[in-house]
Amino acid sequence: MTIDVTYEATLKEVRTERGVLRYHEAGDGPPLLLLHGSGPGVTGWRNFRGNLGVFAEHFRTLVLEFPGFGVSDDFGGHPMVDALSAAVDFLDALDLQDVAVVGNSMGGMVGINMAIDHPERVNKLVTIGGIGKNIFSPGPGEGINLLMDFTDDPTRERLIAWLHSMVYDPALVTDELIEERWTQATEPGTLESARRMYSRAAFEAGMRAQAESDATPYWARMHKISAPVLLTWGRDDRVSPLDMSLLPMRTIPRAELHVFPQCGHWAMIEQKTAFDSAVLAFLRRKDTGAR
């Protein structure tokens, strides 16, 4: 049976105490939660629309739209903090106790934190770039700097420069992609939310706060993750360079790493066939190791 994975057919919403969360749902089976990244004009649908039908053949696949990105309600706080709480609120609202998670970039960070703080909720985790800590490369990476440039001064030229930093193949940056990202990213509410996270002033203030805090950063707590983890990375990622994978690969007890050649930050888009194959094999594999 063919699964209808059009935007309209899969879009749903659920109300939480802080606002309405919208999401896309397709398929039956064990629940699989897909968490999108950050950046101008991003949505869960745009990150995972090409993968949803493949995963829906095996899983009840849920693509959550995080608050503050123009689809779900804006919770009003820092987008990363709101994303962390929204993911748990979403599982509670749908009465899902135990899910597999696939997270792109920021979504991977949300998944990592869920696996650390709510280990009973995450049975498997797949991350797509974006986690860990720069070991050899300077940080923040080129793509993050271009993202801050756009957020502070949103021009079409700066958006295009940022989009090119996300991919290995420049042909992926089509006029259609530019237009849909530009329309969403410059919507006043979405831009205001983005500036809470990626204006240069906000980003640098966050880095200073982390340096001065006594709290243990998430990357120093990854040894606490009990779930199996598949780290996926584009070899040519200019947002979160490949050396960032070394720390999670070494410290997460049950982690494995898959690196895609000729691939930037969007492995699920740029190496879609190989990504889908590797992730499905991991998610469907029966793991017998101790948790």
From TrEMBL:
Recall the GO molecular function terms of this protein's record: hydrolase activity
Q: Which residues cross the membrane?
A: none
UniProt keywords (A-Z) are:
Hydrolase
The protein's name is: Alpha/beta hydrolase
Q: What is the lineage of its organism?
A: Bacteria, Bacillati, Actinomycetota, Actinomycetes, Mycobacteriales
Source domain of life is Bacteria
Which source organism? Rhodococcus rhodnii LMG 5362
Q: Which residues form the AB hydrolase-1 domain?
A: 30-270
